[in-house]
Write a structure and sequence with these properties.
With 671 residues, the chain is mainly β. The chain has eight helices and 35 strands. Helix 4 (127-133) packs antiparallel against helix 5 (157-163).
Length: 671
Amino acid sequence: MREYPDVLNASRFREALNYYTPSEVANSDFGGNEDAFKAITRKAITQNYYADVAGGTEHGKYRLSGGYLNQNGIIRGSQLKKYTANFSGNFRFLENKRLGLDFAVFLTQMDNKYAPINATVGSEGNVISQALQWNPTRPLRDDKGNLTFVSSTTRNPLTSIEAFKDVATTNTMVVNLAPYYKITDDLEYRFIYSAMRQTGNREGMYRAGLIDPSAVNNEQAFISNNGETNLQMTHMLSYNKQINDDWSVNAVAGYEYLDYNYNNNISFGGGFKYMGLDYFDYLQYSTVSTREIASYRSPTNQLQSFFLRGGFNYLDRYLFTATARRDGSTKFGANNKYAMFPSLAIAWNVAQEDFLKSSGIFDQLKVRIGWGKTGNQEFPSGASLNRFTFGNQSVGRANFQNRDLKWETSTTLNAGIDFSVLKGRLYGSIDYFNKKTTDALFEQTLAQDGPAGRIWVNLDGEIVNKGVEIALTGTIVKNDNWTWDLTGNATFLKNSVSGLVGYYETGALRGQGFSGVLGQRMVNGQPLNVWYLADYQGIDPQTGTSMYRGHDGSINTTNDPASNKFYMNSPNPTTLLGISTNVSYKQFSLAANMNGALGHYLFNNTAATTLGISNLSSRNIGSAFFNTSVKESTSNSASASTRYLEKGDYLKMANLTLSYKVGNVGKHLKI
């Protein structure tokens, strides 16, 4: 695993200068030895504290908890502080205790300090690309400790960190109330009300004079405010009945309503000169000509659902469940706001059969099969409507109406086995699934000669994701002092696209020289969003420029990479991995969690747009581009090609925790 992106160090950079641009060595070698990426990063320490108090009687219980998180970012100056409080409880009333109330209140405040990182910057780059491109022979500071200035476009990354101040505070309150009443011993009504209110304030300033001394009197600031309110109301009637020793039934009927509302506004001004104060605290000092304001409120976004679920259990061996949902969303076209989503599930608890009980092999063995449909509405509200954007006394179209826009639907068939052997010391599951998605939601650019703009549509055809998931947990050691558990799971995936009319371009590539470039497609017979790129065939030793394969099979430098593209590998993993283990000795315990993915390819956008050979001689390059076996021309341009397509396989340690359980301290404190 690489800790840092692989760029040239100072000595290798000098070798590259002498090899590629010997005439510019005198002007490009500053005698230093600098690692700019390490200079802007750090080993980030996280502190996390949590405490809770609980109590109650037979009539009700409560819990009060609080937490504090202080997490430094890996980029210097970035930080997250999070404060949380939670008060929850459940109470029962009346002599028969049929009336009850569950409630919870969550309060959170997050204080963020952001690093100057943006994916849509121009040639000046962001703080990461600036560090990667920094000439490693040029000191970041002079002998007096002052930050080195090069130009307004070749920026010192440490200067960028000092020049930008971007802070935000977000406050969130969530209230959940759930009164219920047991009408009979078998029939219960429950009403669930949930409200989330979030407010955010973000303030930023830009010390333009640090980046460009000529802009010392034109420094900038902004203030942004946003608010979000989400409401949920659910009415639910549930019935649970043990009919006799053999049969039990359960049923749930309900109605759910959700409403989402978001708004924000921003004020911007410039013309400041640094006087030791944060500019956003006196935005009125800005010059009138630089001031900008904007505001936004999300279109109506509401969802309502009617649902019914029923099931029965016979002899605790045969289980059946059926569900039907009718969901309606304001996001869809007037003709298709509602859709029906049914599901069925059957399970056979084989371990309860007499022939298996007597074998003594399995502690548990259950066979499951299920089928169901689900809907997707995760796309912008108002997407089915004619929408417009407002400018300074101007109006522009943002979206065209589609009254027939409907739910994206996924139909899944799954079958599985759950098992346990060796008195529960080894257990796991094996599942097969086949998921077909139809009417996929897609934002399409309208073709000319019609009016310019974008429209959301449902694609013809289907996207199929199928595979097998295996999970296994074993207790390797278990005695009075030691316990060691090990869990592993693996999912083997395959997806494909079929039935589309034509193809659809996706996968925007960003960075200098890549404006408007797309590198992926949705097309029949290929994996979802397959890479569609020029096939790079190395450097021509005669010209030092890139060679590409043409559709006629030729390989040369004259094949245009923009018009000679091929389907080249999938961005989707074929295997997902998870490994976790827990080892405990008396009060000590060590837990580790790892996850990974295999079989997919990623486009290295940083290498393509930031670290190419054309940086020489003023900027650094990626180590992979320094190749003395063939001399690449410093004027060789980057293209969307397989040169930058890399295997995305990884296995990483997601969490490693060592803990010690103190136990009871007196009668009231437990640690």
